[in-house]
Amino acid sequence: MSASRLPASRLRDLDDALLVLRAHRDELLRAGDPRGVFATAYVEVTHKLDALRRDGALESPAWVSRLAARFADYYLDVSPDDASAPECWRFAAEVARARPGSTLEHLLLGMVAHILHDLPLALADTLAEEPPERCRRDYERLLAALAESVQPIVDALSAEFSPGLGLLDRLSLGRGRALVFLALALARAQGWRRAERIAGAPWGRARARGRFDAEACGVARQLSRLFARPSVSWSFEQADSIARRGDTLTRRRALDV
After folding, report:
1. 70, 214, 237, 253: most buried by Cβ count inside 10 Å?
2. Which residues contact 127 (CB under 8 A, 6 or more apart)?
3. Which of 127, 126, 121 shows the shortest CA–CA distance to 5?
4. Where are the domains of the chain?
5. Are 118 and 233 in contact (CB under 8 A)?
6. Rounded to an integer, what is the distance from CA 214 to the centroid of its chain?
7. What angle do CA 254, 122, 53 make, to 5 degrees?
8. For residue range 120-134, what is the model confidence (pLDDT) as tens digits?
9. For the chain, what percent of residues have pLDDT higher than 90?
10. Contact 121, 198 (CB under 8 A)
11. pLDDT at 249
12. CB 39 within 8 A of CB 114
């Protein structure tokens, strides 16, 4: 997927996204593809969004449904063997081929690519559909839902990939806190701020996508270097430094997109 081409809007709503994401996860798991780690987690998070919608916890449920579909469009559009695909996703696929047993690494590399690269683009594609204040409040609810999804994610990954989950216990943050911290630190206000900027300046989208991709790949490579060491041991400070790298790079530039 080149920087100038947007993925087709193949999914209509959250229900459609959940159906296709489940099928994609099952296909990867049947093939023994390590990318099934992130796909499994993605399905669990989408289930949580669906529960929020059905429980009436959202101000703009139709917008959240369309956002979930558009977000999944970006993910499902990627072909890791396509040289025009975002580098952050191609890097995640390369690692999956090189180190198929590193469960947490595959999960985090997928999260980095989807949150740092895909999320602001999906937000920008859908922001004009509803009053921005309502969407922003629902966005914060979605981040809170992600935090609540951690235990179901761990349970689902334990069922499918239990041999590789031992590394999670080596994080000083513990299983749940490590995943929550890394996901929410990457997704917090930066994603929304960037989406607002590119939604208001569509002519700068290609440039913005290139920068999102470069920053996501930089974070992913830092993470991967840690996993490549046999005696990897993370502290809270190390995780914090990695998760905040995208924000740090952004602040050093005058144009914050």
Report:
1. 70
2. 135, 195, 196, 199
3. 121
4. 14-251
5. no
6. 15
7. 130
8. 999 999 988 788 899
9. 37
10. yes
11. 43
12. no
pLDDT exceeds 70 at position 81: yes
* Angle (CA) 98 77 202, round 5°: 120
**Residue 184 structure tokens:** 């929410």
Query: Is the pTM higher than 0.85?
Result: no
What tokens does 129 get? 């559909």
Q: What is the per-residue pLDDT for 175?
A: 45
The size of the chain, in residues, is 257
DSSP alpha helices (H): ranges in the chain? 14-30, 36-54, 61-76, 87-98, 103-112, 119-126, 132-148, 150-161, 175-187, 189-200, 205-227, 236-243, 245-251
Integer CA distances (angstroms), 28 to 25, 33, 75, 115, 247, in order: 5, 5, 14, 21, 32
- The owner of tokens 């749940």 is 176
pLDDT at 168: 46
Residue listed under structure tokens 């914060």: 140
Mean model confidence pLDDT for the chain: 78
